[in-house]
Design a protein that fits this description.
mainly beta; outer membrane lipoprotein receptor (LolB), chain A; two-stranded antiparallel ribbon; 3 helices
Length: about 270
């Protein structure tokens, strides 16, 4: 009996340790809403690696969206533009850099504590979207992906909540529902496929043939930086006669003033035929 209990304990311990492992694989997400047509709503492929995440649009929206590469090991984020073979790098928001912030210990005569929402594992999505509507998250306890607390304020990591991968998000536009319940909109993002797999390191690296994107610099005083827009219309017939303008207004006749003292000629009597 003791041996049986020991075996069950070992199995339970093994399953618990497995459940705590970081998920590696691909999750496909589909997005729907009333205000966005299906062909323009992005379907996303999110690839979870050991210490990196790559987000790729998989439908027609891919032409308008760049790939996003998040490196948790280096604290960097890269926007990859495939058509131009360029990338843009920027550091992830790191709340540890603000740890030196010292809040008040007393307000209005009452003692208060300093509480950082990031330390509590609150996703920034809740804080941002709560201003315009209600947000419902559906994280999975079976899919773990630990993220350092210092990076939880990054909007790009909204698919992870409390170290659990979010498989569904519903955002209700509360502003529309207040004005007109018939026009209220709900955007739903839901996973359609979960596939565990191991990726090569190259999936989470910037391709070697990509170059850093350089922002163009414009001089406000340089008219060449903002060329005048030339509009052409091939449908217009260049031989079409230019319509004439409105006719000129008739000239006013100047009245002739009669001289003073002039004698009026007697009126002639009409002639009578005999």
């Amino acid at each position: 009996m003791k041996k049986l209990i020991l075996v069950f304990s070992m199995v339970a311990g093994f399953m618990g340790a497995y459940a705590q492992q970081r998920f590696e694989g691909t999750i496909l997400y589909s997005q729907t809403s009333k205000s966005t047509t299906r062909d323009k709503a992005p379907d996303l492929s999110v690839r979870f690696g050991k210490n990196a995440i790559r987000i790729v649009a998989t439908n027609a929206a891919r032409e308008e969206m760049d790939d996003l590469l998040i490196r948790l090991d280096s604290g960097m984020m890269y926007t990859l533009r495939a058509d131009e073979k360029t990338f843009k790098a920027k550091p992830l928001i790191n709340t540890e850099s603000n740890r030196e912030f010292v809040g008040p210990t007393e307000i209005a005569g009452y003692k208060v504590n300093t509480f950082n929402l990031a330390d509590a594992g609150y996703s920034v999505l809740n804080a941002v979207m709560a201003k315009i509507g209600k947000v419902w998250l559906f994280p999975s306890k079976d899919l773990r992906y630990p993220v350092p607390v210092k990076y939880l304020q990054n909007m790009e990591l909204c698919m992870i909540h409390d170290n659990q991968i979010v498989l569904g998000i519903s955002i209700i536009d509360q502003l529309k529902s207040y004005s007109d319940s018939a026009s209220s909109d709900t955007m739903t993002i839901q996973a359609t496929s979960v596939k565990p797999e191991v990726f090569p390191d190259s999936v989470f690296e910037v391709p070697k043939d990509y170059t850093a994107y350089v922002e163009p610099v414009y001089n406000d005083m340089d008219s060449a930086a903002y060329p005048a827009e030339i509009v052409t219309d091939s449908a217009v017939d260049a031989t079409y006669a230019v319509p004439e303008g409105p006719p000129a207004a008739p000239k006013k006749k100047t009245a002739v003033k009669k001289k003073a003292g002039a004698v009026k000629s007697p009126a002639r009597k009409p002639s009578v035929k005999k």
